[in-house]
Design brief:
The longest helix is centred in the middle third of the chain and has 19 residues, at 208-226. Helix 2 (34-48) packs parallel to helix 9 (252-263). The protein is α/β, with parallel strands linked by helices and 421 residues long. It has helices at 18-25, 34-48, 65-73, 83-91, 108-117, 127-140, 178-186, 208-226, 252-263, 276-279, 312-316, 406-411, and strands spanning 4-7, 10-13, 16-17, 29-33, 53-58, 77-80, 99-101, 121-124, 144-151, 173-174, 191-197, 233-237, 269-272, 283-294, 299-303, 322-324, 334-340, 349-357, 364-367, 389-393, 396-401. Helix 9 (252-263) links the parallel strand 12 and strand 13. It is globular and about 70 Å long. The strands form three sheets. Strands 4, 14, 15, 16, 17, 18, 19, 20 and 21 form a nine-stranded mixed sheet that branches. It has an eight-stranded parallel beta barrel with strand order 5-6-7-8-9-11-12-13, surrounded by six helices. It folds into two domains: 4-32 and 280-411, Lyase, Ornithine Decarboxylase, Chain A, domain 1, CATH 2.40.37; 34-278, Alanine racemase (TIM Barrel), CATH 3.20.20. 29% of the residues lie in helices and 26% in strands.
């Protein structure tokens, strides 16, 4: 994460000191490095050279408009899982034809909105959805381009809550039922089957699950073609992992090489849908120490960021490295502590049992690798305003989502008429 480094004793995002942003914006806040975002995209673009392939950024990882637009301007499409994400992609300037609509529970109205917008591909995940989409497309007088997402029953070896490619997961159509689904789709007048899709999970740190899943789907493609189906696209999905602690995820080049090797000769256009790998290490969360509370069994460092700002540690038992924004001396003593927020929940923590340089009230900390599934999963629990988001580009920075005031939060609500004013 070279875009975030100590310079003159202070942590910087590219050429901007995080302390300077905190003084202007307040804490907590998310900070994204445009340099790191471009670098991650560049690795994918370089690896895809020579392949008939496209990249659709998975908005669920980080749906900040500035982030979406940066990738869109570089040529990315969008992988979306809701109409809200579709509207964000369109607002950021991504053409509808470069949008792929995934997700297991699309309502008829949502499918209609996608078709009316001209979304380029809908990934269907059940036989029931085939029927719904066919009816909606018929009502609109259009033909919907679809892929069918299959579940290859591959254990991705990742966290239980973010694996998506096993039979017990809700995603996709079981491989054993896929031929029936394609046969059904081929008989529906308002659908045009253009390919097949898969996605086996998130934060994968080895390529073996990808290889195994592609081999299974590749064999299915041959069967489907023998059945008379035209399979022109193979949507690989995303899920490639990043560094949170001491992981050693595969390089993007190695990942694409495996995909290219295992799909060679299929004649399919490939679609990659990275999210976390593009944005995860390009973002940090900055927080201020409120107070330090020594206890009998451990010391608590209470900060102004909480589980509502970054829920991953509470939800996934996730590890995020934490560093002081002011560079500690090499010989600085450390303390064993929990970094916790002010929310009224025992599960409100950013880190537990960490050895960190001694911290005091008013100091800033930086939570690393917070660019994915950070701000996008935040809430206003305890009536805490959402943390602002900031983008740095070289020596400049801008707030891309401001912190709402309490008054703005309250003004969005309404009393029922019988309660009066």
């Amino acid at each position: 994460m070279t875009s975030f480094a100590y310079k003159d004793g202070e942590m910087h995002a590219e050429g901007v000191a995080l302390k300077a942003i905190a003084q202007q914006v307040g804490t907590p806040f998310y900070c994204y490095s445009a340099e790191a975002l471009r670098a991650a995209f560049g690795e994918f673009a370089g690896g895809m050279k020579g392949l008939n392939a496209s990249l659709c950024y998975a908005l669920k990882a980080n749906s900040n408009l500035a982030v979406i637009k940066l990738f869109g301007d570089l040529g990315a499409g969008a992988d979306i899982v809701s109409v809200g994400e579709m509207q964000r992609a369109l607002a950021a300037g991504i053409p509808a034809r470069r949008i792929v609509y995934s997700g297991v529970g699309k309502k008829a109205g949502e499918l209609a909105a996608a078709l009316q917008a001209g979304v380029g591909q809908i990934n269907v995940e059940s036989s029931a959805e085939l029927e719904t989409l066919n009816a909606v497309a018929g009502q609109l007088g259009v033909k919907a381009d679809i892929t069918i997402r299959v579940n290859p029953d591959i254990d991705a070896g990742t966290h239980e809550k973010i694996t998506t490619g096993r039979k017990e997961n809700k995603f996709g159509i079981d491989l054993d039922l896929a031929r029936d689904a394609f046969a059904k789709a081929g008989k529906l007048a308002n659908l045009r089957v253009v390919g097949i899709a898969m996605h086996i999970g998130s934060q994968l740190t080895t390529l073996d699950p990808y290889r195994a899943a592609i081999v299974r789907v590749r064999d299915l493609i041959q069967q489907l073609r023998a059945d008379g189906h035209r399979i022109d696209r193979f949507d690989i999905g995303g899920g490639l992992g990043i560094v949170y602690a001491d992981e050693q995820p595969p390089s993007i080049a190695d990942f694409i090489q495996v995909v290219g090797k295992e799909t060679a000769g299929l004649g399919c256009e490939l679609t990659f849908e990275p999210g976390r790998r593009l944005v995860g290490e390009a973002g940090v969360l900055v927080s201020e120490v409120i107070l330090v509370k020594p206890g009998v069994s451990k010391t608590f460092v209470i900060v102004d960021a909480a589980m509502n700002d970054l829920i991953r540690p509470t939800l996934y038992e996730a590890w995020h490295d934490i560093l002081p924004v002011r560079q500690p001396r090499p010989d600085a003593a450390t303390i064993r502590c929990d970094i916790v927020g002010p929310i009224c929940e025992s599960g409100d923590y950013l880190a537990q049992n960490r050895d960190l340089p001694a911290l005091s009230a008013g100091e800033l900390i930086m939570v690393r690798s917070a660019g994915a599934y950070g701000a996008v999963m935040a809430s206003s629990y305890n009536s805490r305003p959402l943390a602002p988001e900031v983008m740095v580009d070289g020596m400049r920075f801008a707030v891309t989502r401001p912190r709402p005031t309490i008054e703005e939060m309250i003004s969005a609500e309404r009393l029922p008429p019988w309660m009066g004013n």
